[in-house]
Design a protein that fits this description.
The chain is an alpha/beta fold. It has eleven helices and nine strands.
Amino acid sequence: MTDYEHILVDGQEIITITLNRPEIHNPFDDKMIAELTACFNIIQSKPDARAVIITGAGRSFCAGADLNWMKRMGQYSLDENLADAGGLSAMFQALEDIEIPTIARINGAALGGGAGLVCACDFAIASEHVKIGFSEVKLGLLPGVISPYVIDRIGGKKAVQLFTTGERLAAEDALKVGLVDKVVSLEGLDLIISQLIKQILSGGPKAVKECKRLARAGVHMERDEFKKYCISAIAQIRASPEGKEGVGSFLEKREPAWRD
């Protein structure tokens, strides 16, 4: 988890991933995308991990696409562009596949793909001075790969407005439209996230994963199918050792084992 050039990874139970190209505002290029994809896949296989925090080094969260990467893309054929976009999509899919909660710690500007990374996380906590926007249209492009995650977070109509104007929103305006969940001072960012982590850790590790899976399943399943899924999910968790421990500790007025 440490052999990377463009990202830093720290922690075992709470894993912090830092986009680490601060001198150019932490943009994506093919190397960073490959490193993030590999890192996300490793996290998915770590049974002791409980939450993931994604942030940026320096003054920015992520400024979108690296200029040199964009220059190369401008010379690509259609097939090469398909492969390149597919690689970015695979990175976002690897993030989406992570079973534990993911938190965007937005310490600075999040633009284009960086704003998409915010939307792909389960929680988005922003410092008060950040700017967030989808500027692709200004370049004659569109936010294709990230659009499913943006639409999931803010809905289709608001996505149309932000995509077609390329408007950069201040933190409070991003909060109003749902791009972020909370806005705090830069100095208070870590305190708020630590409080959020504490809440996540208070729940059963398996239950937290199953709650995330349940909520996501409900978005995509047909209603009757989802009802059957819900019945099976609650029955299995009740019968699990963790479920029995949780109910038992409540009835016995003690802390459950996972909080120890």
